[in-house]
Write a sequence for this structure.
């Protein structure tokens, strides 16, 4: 979070940290189904972004997850349209070999005032959670999975400079290198300037080690 705060200051942006207050805008019935975790956060961030644009009067609002680490304070997040989302190159083992898949993610998202996607996305998330069986609420169903599905139709502007560190890549970063890290270097669309550490998938100690070795991405 300190890296994001420093980046915000370097870019001349106002910075706001939001803790558990993110759940204040999530309906009770939604929380009953999802719990106070990633699925609730996927909706809560949309409400906070809409509030920043409408009630607080900002022309643009950018969200960065708490486990995003900014490596380059000169990073520019911009787009031609009214919204943009992150793009990750996810490295994991499949069928005995490592595979690289590009997905849309919401660890970073940018919206501008008047964007029609933001209210549509919020309503879509509510609709999905309202209809889904509480026993089948998947962690990414209204986050990266939903965005990746919509991207195939809408073609969002993407921010590939904010990528993600999968557990396979994290393991290589902890040991000084490996096939997963090398594949990420090869398949990344652009040099990474920030990364989602995916802290829910690795331990806090591992995350600290990964941050210390991110120079290996160069």
């Amino acid at each position: 979070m300190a890296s994001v705060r420093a980046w915000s200051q370097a870019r001349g942006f106002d910075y706001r940290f939001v803790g558990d207050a993110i759940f204040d805008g999530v309906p009770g019935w939604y929380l009953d189904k999802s719990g106070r975790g990633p699925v609730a956060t996927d909706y809560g961030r949309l409400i906070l972004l809409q509030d920043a644009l409408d009630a607080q009067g900002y022309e643009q609002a950018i969200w960065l997850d708490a486990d995003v680490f900014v490596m380059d304070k000169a990073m520019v997040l911009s787009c031609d349209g009214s919204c943009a989302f992150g793009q990750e190159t996810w490295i994991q083992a499949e069928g005995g070999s490592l595979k690289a898949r590009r997905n849309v993610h919401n660890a970073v998202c940018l919206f501008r005032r008047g964007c029609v996607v933001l209210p549509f996305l919020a309503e879509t998330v509510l609709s999905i959670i309202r209809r889904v069986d509480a026993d089948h609420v998947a962690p990414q169903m209204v986050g990266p999975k939903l965005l990746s599905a919509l991207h195939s139709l809408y073609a969002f502007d993407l921010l590939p400079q904010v990528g993600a560190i999968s557990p396979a890549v994290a393991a290589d970063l902890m040991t000084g290198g490996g096939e997963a890290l090398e594949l990420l270097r090869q398949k990344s669309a652009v040099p990474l300037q920030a990364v989602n550490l995916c802290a829910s998938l690795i331990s806090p100690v591992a995350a600290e080690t990964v941050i210390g070795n991110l120079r290996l991405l160069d």
